[in-house]
Design brief:
Blueprint lengths: L1 E7 L42 E8 L9 H10 L8 E7 L6 H11 L5 E5 L6 H5 L2 H16 L4 E5 L6 H13 L3 E5 L12 H14 L4 E5 L2 H4 L5 H15 L4 E3 L13 H9 L2 H4 L3 H15 L3
Parallel strand pairs: 1-2, 2-3, 3-4, 4-5, 5-6, 6-7, 7-8
Helix pairs in contact: 2-4, 5-6, 6-8
């Protein structure tokens, strides 16, 4: 089974900042020490029946003031070693900066071979940020930047889809930003319970976003909501997402190394996905789309 993992974080704690990994910084996870160390390309090896053909590194806070430094570190350890594994990177971006400074950051980032897009984490601040004039101006500038690129640009969209007001607001932004490829992180954090209002809000948001042509969804990060998420719930959520978004706009991902909160290894995580009831019921074409071809297309690899 060929896989391009579209959501991986590699850490270099010896050289990078990673303020969020420190015990005194949020998120205040009791098990955060499990991932507070360096993770390199050698830590994401997979073996039969899975073959890792490529991956997308998602910014992890190496140096948010100079986001290109994270890409330089990655390229030095991966691309410069002439590794044949496909590799692209999503850089950190600060949408609250003055637009001129943001454009300067984008110009530097665009010179990196691995660069394919950016992320500003919205999470609980989504509505506040998406109604801020500076943020909106910068998204418009990002759209113009994407228009000038033949491959466009990805914006990783991390927010809670159960926040209906924030989702309605970002839908308006997405409709205006036709040159940006928006990709929802961690399936929009589906609530753990299915029979309460947050689940319905999450589902309604999923349906609203799915109607837009320039957005896809990555399915990962289950452990961020529940360290001991159950197989039945995973199968249910994946089925709902696929039925809503369609086979060409869904990607399966790992969120490594955070997936180690709930699995003993990277291999173990991917085995749990491909051996799930949801995955086994897919056709070979659907499996290939969700594990390989969609990432290849959405990230212009």
């Amino acid at each position: 089974m060929k896989i391009i993992d579209p959501h991986i974080h590699l850490f270099n704690v010896e050289e990078g900042d990673y303020h969020w990994l420190k015990a005194e910084s949020p998120p205040f996870w009791s098990d955060k020490s499990l991932i507070n160390k360096s993770f390199t390309f050698s830590d994401i090896k997979l073996s039969s029946p899975i073959n890792l053909e490529g991956f997308i590194h998602i910014e992890a806070g190496f140096d948010n003031s100079q986001p290109w430094r994270e890409l330089e570190f990655l390229e030095d350890t991966i691309l410069n070693q002439k590794n044949k594994t496909l590799f692209k990177a999503i850089a950190s971006i600060d949408l609250t900066k003055p637009t001129l400074h943001l454009e300067q950051d984008l110009d530097i980032l665009a010179k990196q071979k691995s660069f394919t897009g950016v992320r500003h984490i919205f999470d609980e601040q989504a509505l506040q940020l998406l109604t801020d004039r500076q943020v909106l101006d910068n998204i418009a500038a990002l759209n113009e930047f994407a228009k000038a690129r033949n491959q466009g640009i990805v914006f990783e969209t991390q927010l809670f889809l159960s926040d209906r007001q924030a989702v309605k607001t970002i839908c308006t932004v997405i409709e205006k930003s036709t040159h940006i490829k928006f990709i929802i992180n961690h399936a929009g954090f589906p609530p753990t319970a299915h029979l309460i209002a947050p689940w319905q809000h999450w589902y309604d948001s999923l349906c609203e976003l799915a109607s837009l042509p320039n957005i896809a969804v990555k399915c990962s990060g289950w452990e961020m909501v529940d360290r001991e998420f159950q197989k039945a719930r995973l199968n249910k959520q994946l089925s709902v997402i696929l039925n809503t978004f369609g086979v060409n706009k869904v990607m399966l991902a790992s969120n490594f190394p955070l997936c180690l909160f709930s699995h003993k290894s990277y291999q173990d995580y991917w085995l749990s996905i491909i051996q799930s009831d949801f995955f086994q019921k897919l056709t070979m074409q659907e499996k290939s789309a969700l594990c390989y071809h969609n990432a290849l297309n959405w990230y212009s690899m």
